[in-house]
Amino acid sequence: MSLMKNLIHGTNFDHTSLNALQKVTLRAVVMSFLFFGLVAIEGMIMKLVVTGPSNPLPSMFSHPEHYFSIMTVHPIVGIFGSTYQLVFAAFMFLVPFLTKKPLYSVKLANFVWIMITVGTALAWIAAFVWQYAPLYTLYWPLPADTEQFHVVGGIVFILGVALIMVGTFGFIYNIYATVFAKVGIHKDKTTKELLISGFGIDGMLNLVHKLTGKPPYSKEPALALPVVAIFRGTVDTFLDAIVILTAGVLVLVFLLADLGGLHWDVGAVDALLYKNYFWWGLDLVADGLVLIYVAGSWYLLATLITGQKLFMENVARAALMLELLVSWMVWSHHLLADQGQPEMMKLISGEMVTAFELLTQGLALFITLVTLWKARPLKMTMELKYLLGGLVGFGLAVPAAIIQADMGMNRILHNTQWIIMAHVHIALIVGLYMTLYSALYVLWPIVTNNTKMFSSKMSNIHFWLYLIGGIGMGAFGGMAGLDGMLRRHLYVNGEFNTLMILAAICGTMVLVAWLIFLLNIVMSVGIKGLIGIFLPAQDKTASYGIEPETIAENHK
Amino acid sequence: MTFTNSLELLAFHETAYTIYAAMIISVVAWFGYNLSRENAKSVFRIPFYTYMAFLVAGGVGHHIFTYNAIPWVSEDMTRHDIKPDATYTFEIAKHKWVGLPKKITIQCNQTIEFNVKSHDLVYGFGLFRQDGTLVTQMQVNPGTDVNGILDSNDMLWTFNHNGVFDMTSTEYSGPAQYSEDGKDLMLVKNFVEVVGCDKGDAK
After folding, report:
1. pTM above the 0.90 mark?
2. Are residues B97 and B46 in the same domain?
């Protein structure tokens, strides 16, 4: 009876007490975790297919059209539908929270999650109904190949991605409009001061002043360090959205021409040049957006959990600036197997500048660990556990990528499962998501007005299943890559059977962990509360008054 | 230390990365354990700039190491100045290999140039051992020059182990690469055979 009561009413969650900012944040979080479930199921389907003919799935999943349709939408749903939603929701809540200013527009925040949800759904429908499957790489001219794909499917897919990018622009506008709003603590700040702080230039000048024996350039920077990371990462988010949108327009123009009976020569667009442009933009998601956002999130979590100032804050500010520049110059590591790519670009952009990511991410890891260490003893809360899990994830994933970003290694690892499993999946599932889970546990009481989590046991089971499953899946998949298993290839005869079965077992752990997490959340907020999140807020307030410092008290 | 084929390099790499992975997981686990303990003492101090220097050395040193230990790196960078022992040129159109010799037989230690051209989509070119492990690969981009001649995608490879290798496209080019039941239609079994070496090329 009590369980049924929890299922319907939750613990002590009252959606009517939530203000507009809290509600819009929770809406995006709900959608994000629903998409996470979808992406986990897709991943499991693909894993099961490659275990061989004895897999329990209906044979249609092994058909190439169907299999590659799933492979096409898997990253769209995962990266945009789930990760973007969660990150955007967290940041549209955190920027007002940290700057103590209202969010520029709650309406725009609602627009963002709706656009991303509808866009992701459209892209998914294009793959499901028309089996449009050019993969997320969209290597030219495959997305415009109407001999293999239905033109309507392509148009729906591109429209879906375009809506996601429109939503992304909405997020960017909301963040910058909030940061630059001259209200509250920024009432007397100039745009120049906010810009200098946003780019971390004040941190760099502080370092220079310290080295030259001058007094600090700025004792109290205008923006808190996590806001600087959000500001900086959002620059990459913007550039990335421009690239994806323009690539989408190119594909759309060719598809519309085809629909109109015109068969334009796809050879008019140079495939290698397109690859350079596309990877420059797409890599900003991975090497710019993710690494910068993650570094900022670690700094925020470390300071919130410990209640202390960040260790070497000026260095961290300056490093975020360096990371931005690095992220613009590393795309050639995706083109090390392209023989037409100039050798000098492979060497400088592909190898040397890319190696700097080891430095910037290693620096973030070091600063976070030292900040935590200096504040010990700390209570081992869920947020601290997840933060450590996130650090492990990137500690494993970044060197895995640096290893492949080498002309020698790339020749025998390019396009194998190594990079997608040992790097991408561990970075996203373990590194990024565990960091986001940590943020979720930190923000949970603030966003839900101190709603009690239904079960701490379930939280712990989720943590361990997710951590072991995530690392295990990446590791076994990575080993398959070392054994020659390609990442964008269909294997139906169980060629890498043993490793794929082990990876599938670990993938199942991730899926089960997600179900347990979801159940824990539903039992905490109740089905009524879940529905209530999507009802209009009575309190239209767009900011939240709790001081960040109070969170640290819970960890002592 | 020099690696003569991908198997040796991958075995080294697998061992090194496994040790590293165990180390980083252990360090964070140890760290987490001590974070919550009363009176936990630092076992050792890592000076900040030493750590930074280690990361720089690791990032740059890795490339210096591979340049010196993996023969195909310098060979690839200077391939236009190297005269190969033989050149094989073939094309791909609509997921089919065009102008493909039935089989290529290579003598031990011969340096071969593979020049693959695509008429339509982005493909890949990869050689695989019988156990599925990758010997070498490259991307095959479509395109033509100003005279309408198909662009080259060329690579050199020196074979110094006996073996029989299959060939297929290593880049996804749409579902048309496969039959309805998932068979890879671009797979050419036993395409390359290397003979005359003392050692075989297998795991």
Report:
1. yes
2. no
